Structure formats: structure tokens, C-alpha cells
Amino acid sequence: MDTLEKAVDRVLSGDSAAFQQIVDATSVRLVRLGARIMGNQADAEDVVQEAYVKAFRALKAGEFDRRSSTATWLYRIVVNGAIDAKRSRTRRAEQSDLQIDPSWDGAAFAEARLALSELDDWLAMLPTDQRAVLVLQSVEGLNNTEIARVMGVSEGAVEQRLVRARAALRQRRQLP
Amino acid sequence: MTDLEDIDQRLARLGRKTEALRPSAGFSARVMSAVTAEAAPSLLENAWFSSRRLVPVAAIAAALSVVWAVQVDRSVDDELATSYASVELE
To answer: Where in A46-156 does DSSP place strands (E)?
Structure first.
């Protein structure tokens, strides 16, 4: 059993502080996923924080049945939260003074944020669910079965959204 | 997007470039603060959890009360029966 599953066991047995290990093990990947769907890191961090609180609440209430791995479960909460937030929220202005950890490569981080902005502009025309499916497949590298599991839809629905998303992007490319 | 760049190629390129994204400094601490606030029970929950400890004591007290009430009832019945019997004898 990996560290993540052991940390879940500890939270389930009443050790709330073990939730820190879950956050440490997953926050980079989840914030990156949220940012790619939201197109904005500040919004992504809000979504991921809410997702962690929901996950903690569910663990405490015994609602996590462990039919999927903890990582997939957290992915699902973040993707659903990001889709809901993107549909309902007014986009927050990206913080130019976002504090980064001094141990990280500042230049790579700045370049990543430029790429995020490019990704966001390019995918802005897509409905949120199509955008999420496209990001999960072509950026996150999940296969259709995994995407279906994360999004709680059939593989057919995933395929349909991918086809529509790609058609919309191709159509936009052909516009003058 | 260049003419030669396919949709998937462009997504893969942007995916690679965004790999360096990280949560901002202090993100983990903010999350744990929100989680800790969630974990702290409210006044009502505190009252509920405290009162739950008294449930076994209350159950035993209730059972003893029933036993006592039945015993008292029986002794009253016995005394009444005795008094009726003495009246008949008289």
C-alpha cells in the first residue's frame, strides 16, 4: 500500500493531522490540473482547497468507499469542482505577484504561466466539460476509461466530447 | 498555432510547458488551516458528543427506575391484599 493510501487509513482511524501527508503528496498535481482547466492559478488554488475540504469531510463521514484509488477520487473532486467553478464564477484576475517557493525555478515557473495563458486563450471557446475532457486526455495523459471514471460519465460520452472539442478547435483554426 | 502543428501536438507542447506550475508558497498551510477549521466541532456538536457519553449512564438509571417502580408497585399490591384480607377476617 502506498503512502497516500496509508495516510487515508490514518485519517480514517481518527488522525486528522495525517491529512497533511495527503496534501503534500497530491497538491502539485492537483493545482496543475486545476490550473489547466480553469486557465488561472489563483482560481485553481481556490478549487483545489475546496476539494481538499470536501475530501476531508467525506473521509470523516465515512463516505469514501475506496472503490477507486485515492488519487482518482481526488482527481474527480477537483475536476468536478473546476467545472462547476468555471461555469458559475467570474474569473479572478491572475495575480502577477503570486508568491512562489524560493526552491523552485522561477524562470520555468514564469514560462509555465505564459503557456497556461496561451492554453486558456486557445481553449476559451470550448464548453467547460469539453475543455476538461481534452485537458485530461491530451495534457494529463489519461485514457478514455480513466477520464470516464474521473468524470463519472460513459466512455461514449467522453469520446463524443473529444470529437466535438477537436471539431470546434479545427473550425476556429479555419476562420480568417 | 503554426499550420503544421496539430491540435494534439499543441496541447502536448502546452502540457509540457505547464509542467512547471506549482502551488503558490503557503498553499499547503492554507489548506490545512481550512481543514482544521472543518475538523473543529461546533458548540452544538460539542454538546452532542459530551451528552453521548452520558447515554449509558442514563440508560442504566432508567432501567433501575423501572425495576424500582415495579418493586414498589408489587409491595403496594401486597399491602392492599393484606389489608383486604384483614378486613374480611374482621
So the answer is: none
Under DSSP, the state recorded for B4 is T
Mean pLDDT of chain A: 89
pLDDT above 60 (res A40)? yes
Alpha-carbon distance A70 to A22, whole Å?
9
Spell A92-118 as b/e; 16+ CB within 10 A means b. Answer: eeeeeeeeeeeeeeeeebeebbebbeb
Res A38: pLDDT: 94
Q: What single letter denotes the amino acid at residue A31?
A: V
- Yes or no, beta carbons of B7 and A27 under 8 Å apart: no
Q: Cα(B73)–Cα(B67) distance, rounded to whole angstroms?
A: 10
* Structure-block grid coordinates of residue B26: 503557503
**Do B12 and A138 lie within an 8 Å CB cutoff?**
yes
- CATH hierarchy code of domain A3-91+111-174: 1.20.140.160
Task: Compute φ and ψ for A93, nearest 5 degrees.
Answer: -65, 135
Nearest partner of A146 among A54, A65, A76, judged by Cα: A76
Identify whether the C-beta of residue A91 lies closer than 8 Å to the C-beta of residue A43. Answer: yes
DSSP B42: P
Q: Among B1, B21, B32, which would you mutate to test the A interface (most chain A Cβ atoms within 10 Å of its Cβ)?
A: B21
Q: What is the mean pLDDT of residues A124-146?
A: 94
- Write down the domain spans for chain A: 3-91+111-174
